[in-house]
Specification:
The chain has a domain at about 5-185 and about 215-245 and about 300-310: 3-Layer(aba) Sandwich (Rossmann fold), CATH 3.40.50. The protein is globular. α1 packs across α7 (about 220-230) and α6 (about 190-200) crosses α8 (about 250-260). A seven-stranded parallel beta sheet has the order 3-2-1-4-5-8-13, with helices on both faces. Strands 6-7 form a two-stranded antiparallel sheet. About 40% of the residues lie in helices and about 20% in strands. With about 350 residues, it is of the alpha/beta class.
Length: about 350
């Protein structure tokens, strides 16, 4: 069956906005479920895109909005857990990752089964592992296992990941799972964050400076999703997505400083000081720069064991070919993005 109607969860986010635009450019009909319709203003203007306000954690709403769709794409994910009061507290740590990365995928596969949608694409993360010390990676690993299990055709199978004996139904879905390394591009929360820090800080103490990444461009990630939709060769597959080059965190931060014309002194912190910095930043009010869970996640290098998947017939973009255009602050568009970030819009 040709896929023409796609429902996307997380369509107004960083990867989602790019993916929706690419799918619309191919003439496909896209339904975006968003908590607030106003956050997807640029998508509303696209002629084949429908933006609907919905609570994606409501099972019945998912079932209602999945009806009539040919495929579902789940891009929803968070890097940090929620707040209790005005600061993050340890007692809040066992909530949001479970809800977003485990319970939501379970609801998505169930809603697909209930509505007859048999094509599901799912965003996991490089390093996802049910046994990871990082709660983020652990929850991503469990969610990934749930989606993979949904591709089975048996009736039910005991799943030992989920806090004791529970059962996951195998719906026989045609699933594809993506596990990208850190994603870069205009509006990212990685290189852009360090660029902003380097503008105001003459010296930057850096935790986990030796951690390795293979940054992948957001447009390449979105294109991999779009190209996979009706390609049978991708059914049942899991793809690690990495850019063409590996960098240490220190190398990436130094590069960001050079691009924006703010070369700074970077002080790599040892293991103990890295943990202490993560702990201190975790309790900093406002947007989180780092947490102890991030520290645990960076104990494992975020790189691919193989090259770019051969099923995708395009090469991944190099960081150096893309990053300067959006990191430099000498263009009107870049200044606009800074103003928008400052205004929290």
């Amino acid at each position: 069956m040709k896929i023409e109607r796609i429902c996307i969860l997380g369509g107004s986010g960083f990867v989602g906005t790019q993916l929706v635009s690419q799918l619309a450019a191919r003439g496909l009909n896209v339904r975006v479920l968003s908590r607030r319709r106003e956050t997807a203003k640029e998508l509303i203007l696209l002629p084949t895109v429908e933006v609907i306000e919905a609570d994606v954690h409501d099972q019945q709403e998912l079932i209602r909005h999945f009806r009539g769709m040919d495929a579902v794409i789940n891009l929803v994910g968070i890097l940090h857990e929620g707040k209790v009061g005005r600061i993050d507290l340890p007692s809040a740590r066992r909530g949001d990752f479970q809800k977003v990365h485990v319970e939501l995928p379970r609801k998505v596969v169930h809603a697909c089964g209930e509505t007859g949608v048999n094509r599901l694409l799912h965003m996991s993360a490089l390093g996802a592992n049910p046994n990871s010390r990082s709660a983020y990676q652990r929850s991503k690993g469990i969610g990934e296992a749930l989606v993979r299990e949904a591709g089975r055709t048996h009736t039910e199978h005991e799943n030992w990941y989920l806090d004791g004996p529970k059962f996951v139904h195998g719906y026989g879905l045609k699933v594809t799972i993506f596990r990208p390394s850190v994603i870069f591009g205009r509006g990212d929360s990685f290189l852009s964050m360090f660029a902003r820090l380097l503008k105001i800080s003459p010296v930057l103490p850096l935790a986990n400076a030796g951690a390795c990444f293979a940054p992948v461009h957001v447009e390449d990630v979105a294109r991999a999703y779009a190209d996979s939709l009706d390609n049978p060769a991708t059914y049942g597959e899991t793809y690690d997505l990495c850019g063409p080059k590996i960098y240490s965190l220190q190398e990436l931060v130094r590069y960001a400083g050079e691009v924006i014309g703010k070369p700074r002194s970077i002080i790599p912190l040892g293991k103990r000081l890295s943990y202490l910095q993560a702990w201190a930043l975790e309790y900093k009010p406002g947007k989180k720069l780092m947490t102890r869970d991030n520290y645990y996640a960076m104990e494992t290098d975020n790189v691919c064991s193989g090259g770019w998947p051969s099923v995708f017939d395009f090469p991944p973009a190099a960081l150096e070919a893309i990053a300067p255009e959006y990191l430099r602050d000498d263009t009107p568009r870049a200044r606009y993005e800074d103003y928008r970030e400052g205004a929290r819009r």
